[in-house]
Structures are given as C-alpha cells and as structure tokens.
C-alpha cells in the first residue's frame, strides 16, 4: 500500500528568522532587594553595587555579572524582564537597562491591560 499524503497545509516559515524570547524575573534573579542600608553595605563588600533606594529602607543590588549576562543574551534573544513590583519602584532600575540597549521598550501592567483583554 502507498503512503497517504497529509491534507493539511504546510506551516508557513518566516522569511527572516526570528529571535526566541527569554523571560527573566527582575526580583531575585537579576536584582537582590536589600532591606536596609546595612545589608546593602554587606552586599557591596561582595562586589554588589547598590543601584537605587526605594523609600527609606530598601536598596536594589544587581547580581554580580548581570550586565555582561544581559549583554550576551540580548544578542541571541528578545528579552522580557518581568516583575511584580510597581512601575514607581522599578522605573530607575529599568531605565539603566534601557539606556544600555537591553530593552528597546517597556510595558507595565497598566499599559497591557488597556490594550489587551485578559
């Protein structure tokens, strides 16, 4: 018996290869939240540099090597940085990533909920 041809159309391949998407969590993975200046100072001793005080008691500290990691993966992937924090708390942190070219644009939950039905 002969083989039966598949009646379904072949999938359309994009003309230009697309980058895969890599979703990274800002909190804990890329940045560490130090609760207080003393903890941030201890983190600084291990090579972490405080980025931004939030309120009066929290300091975000980037993980060691995070800048070089983001620079390397940004060449092969479209990066999405996810966070549960509010835009007020993350604005300064994400601004640095934007200026370095890791993120061409940013959307917060308030932007997404206006444009998409969830």
TrEMBL record:
InterPro entries, sorted: FCP1_dom, HAD-like_sf, HAD_sf
Occurrences of domain FCP1 homology (ranges): 15-118
Transmembrane segments: none
One Pfam family linked to the record: NIF
Gene3D superfamilies, A to Z: HAD superfamily/HAD-like
Name of the protein described by the UniProt record: FCP1 homology domain-containing protein
Natural source organism: Riccia fluitans
């Amino acid at each position: 018996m002969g083989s039966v041809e598949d009646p379904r159309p072949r999938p359309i391949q994009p003309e230009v290869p697309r980058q895969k998407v890599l979703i990274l969590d800002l909190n804990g993975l890329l940045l560490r939240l130090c609760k207080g200046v003393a903890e941030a100072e201890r983190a600084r001793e291990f090579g972490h540099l405080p980025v931004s005080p939030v309120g009066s008691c929290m300091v975000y500290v980037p993980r060691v090597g995070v800048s070089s990691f983001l620079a390397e993966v940004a060449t092969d992937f479209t990066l999405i940085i996810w966070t549960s924090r509010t835009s007020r708390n993350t604005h300064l942190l994400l601004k640095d990533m934007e200026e370095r070219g890791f993120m061409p644009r940013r959307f917060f939950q308030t932007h997404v909920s206006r444009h998409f039905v969830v």
